[in-house]
Write a structure and sequence with these properties.
The complex is a heterodimer. By secondary structure, chain A is an alpha/beta fold. Chain A has 11 helices and 8 strands. In chain A, the strands form 2 sheets. Chain A has a 5-stranded mixed β-sheet, with helices on both faces. In chain A, strands 1-2-3 form a 3-stranded mixed β-sheet. In chain A, a hairpin with a 4-residue loop joins strand 1 (29-34) and strand 2 (39-44). In chain A, helix 4 packs antiparallel against helix 5 and helix 10 runs antiparallel to helix 11 (234-246). In chain B, 48% of the residues lie in helices and 12% in strands. Chain B has 10 helices and 6 strands. Chain B has helices spanning 9-28, 33-46, 68-79, 96-105, 125-143, 173-176, 181-188, 198-206, 211-223, 229-239, and strands spanning 59-63, 83-90, 111-114, 147-151, 162-164, 168-172. Chain A binds chain B through residues 25, 27-28, 45-49, 52, 75-76, 79-80, 83, 158-159, 162, 181-182, 219-222, 224-225, 227-228, 230, 233-235, 237-239, 241-242, 244-245, 247, and chain B through 9-10, 13-14, 17, 155-161, 163, 175, 211-212, 215-216, 218-220, 222-225, 228-229, 232-233, 236, 239-240, 242, 244-251.
Chain lengths: 247, 251
């Protein structure tokens, strides 16, 4: 992009002040530039400031003035994400399949920006997905080539589809199963891992990374848990739950 | 109040933002220096940065709706010695009898502010909140003196929990302390049944389609971690009596 980050931050602050007006405080923020993706990350302290930045199309206006993609993040969310990833690192030693997943976790600890590893081919994986096949992309990045992708809803209703996925996964000749189930089941013949949960990805990120999308129904408590963990945004969750209540 | 102290990382982070805001405001609003210093002591005590619970012998106004959050705020401020004047904005969302009884039981005399009747076409929470804020701000501006007002908001955590206003300082107490609903309930010693106030529940009966906005609000509280998933599920069930699949991965 050829723009110096400090100059960009100064200009961003100036535009935010113009758009917010003099009677309100401009929240403190930091910036991280992803030159490859042409994206500017604007990091504020907490979700309340993030809401303030996003509300009324404020960031949209500033982004169009600057001609950039801007993503607003709350530092409290980043801290939570890093804590969850770090807590699970101890289950993934630095060898074999686990070592590859560990590299993925370590790269995600440095988000933003997101720089996924590019590892050589090591083995094969099986993918069971609910809404998006994002785990196929992540699996390929760490050298575990997806042998097959299966949409969980095709295996039956929740939670029976998970049981079926478990049976199929154990019978297939693969090194690892990536699924939209519990975060990890490691003490079986092969590990069953939910990369989205392990890396604390949001539903939006999962949908953006995937190429295939399927409509599915999650149980309400599962949606609530996902909102609490920061995986689904409140507005998206409320629409999904409202549709369930209306059925 | 001892059980209010916390080592939860997210809460400590949020309260530390409130402490930093206090320190910034001490420089900008010198007339509130003493109050902010003492209030900062409460924040530090909450997250184990200070061992002593401060004595906050200042006069504060407190916006009291009769709900759990404003009730808990009132009890905390009373516990630390603040001289509280509860302000009750009289509208259709307030259970006046309960409010008067509660204030009388704890020995406080409230100031009741009348407002024009609420008119709204959609969801009532936005117009009601604006009406309450305007009524309280007008009252405080008319006083013509520097005031501190405490609200029972739990969402604007961190630096937005304490703001400088024309009349003085506004504090969203549950937000500044990063209190969650369970902590507020424990303080009040009272269980929460249904979500929302009288006006909101009446609105659902008349306009079922507006429940989605209430759902959105519940989700925002959940995302903010002011409530946990079990409480959110209880609230959703109070919105809709229909049975639906609740389960989790474990079931």
């Amino acid at each position: 992009m050829g723009i110096h980050l400090r100059e960009l931050t100064d200009v961003l602050g100036k535009y935010l002040r113009e758009v917010i007006g003099d009677d309100k405080e401009v929240p403190e923020f930091r910036t991280v530039l992803d030159e490859q993706d042409e994206r500017l990350y604007l990091i504020v302290h907490d979700r309340a400031e993030k809401s303030m930045m996003i509300a009324g199309g404020l960031i949209g206006k500033v982004a169009s003035l600057l001609g950039l993609n801007i993503t607003v993040l709350a530092l409290s969310d980043i801290i939570n994400k890093r804590m969850r990833i770090a807590r699970n690192l101890k289950y993934f030693p630095n060898s074999g399949v686990f070592g590859r997943i560990r590299e993925l976790m370590i790269s995600e600890l440095k988000y933003p920006p997101r720089k996924l590893p590019e590892l050589d081919k090591y083995g094969e994986s099986l993918i069971f997905f609910l809404e998006s096949n994002y785990q196929s992309l992540l699996s390929e990045k760490i050298g575990l080539i997806p042998k097959k992708e299966v949409a969980l809803p095709t295996l039956g209703k929740w939670p029976l589809c998970l049981r079926r996925a478990f049976e199929i996964g154990l019978s297939e000749d693969v090194d690892v199963v990536f699924w939209d189930g519990p975060t990890f089941v490691l003490k079986m013949e092969k590990p069953f891992i939910n990369l989205g949960r392990l890396l604390s990805l949001s539903r939006r990120e999962m949908l953006e990374m995937g190429e295939v999308r399927v409509k599915c129904e999650l149980p309400v408590m599962e949606i609530l848990r996902s909102v609490y963990m920061g995986e689904i945004e409140p507005f998206d969750a409320s629409r999904v739950i409202y549709a369930i209540l209306e059925d | 109040m001892l059980y209010l102290r916390t080592k939860d990382r997210l809460k400590r982070y949020r309260v530390s933002l409130s402490i930093k805001k206090c320190e910034n405001l001490i420089e900008k609003r010198v007339e509130f220096k003493e109050f902010l210093r003492d209030f900062s002591g409460l924040l530090k005590w909450r997250i184990f940065l200070s061992e002593e619970l401060p004595e906050l012998s200042h006069r504060v106004y407190l916006a009291f709706s009769g709900g759990i959050d404003s009730g808990a705020s009132l009890l905390i401020m009373r516990e630390i010695g603040a001289e509280i004047t509860p302000l009750v904005v009289v509208n259709r969302s307030v259970d006046l009898d309960w409010t008067k009884n509660f204030l009388s039981e704890i020995g406080l005399k409230g100031k009741f502010l009348n407002t024009p009747d609420l008119h709204f076409r959609g969801h009532p929470c936005g117009p009601c909140s604006r009406s309450v804020r305007n009524a309280i701000y007008s009252f405080l501006l008319e006083r013509g003196e520097d005031c501190v007002v405490v609200f029972g908001d739990c969402l604007p955590t961190g630096s937005l929990s304490i703001t400088s206003e024309e009349f003085g300082i506004k504090i969203a107490l549950p937000a500044s302390l990063s209190l969650d609903k369970n902590e507020c309930i424990a303080l009040m010693g009272r269980e929460v049944g249904e979500y929302g106030c009288l006006l909101l529940r009446k609105t659902w009966r008349d306009r079922k389609d507006l429940r989605k906005y209430t759902l959105s609000r519940i989700m925002r509280e959940l995302r903010n971690r002011s409530i946990d998933p079990k409480t959110a599920l209880k609230y959703i069930k109070s919105l809709e009596k229909k049975r639906f699949w609740e389960g989790t991965f474990d079931s």
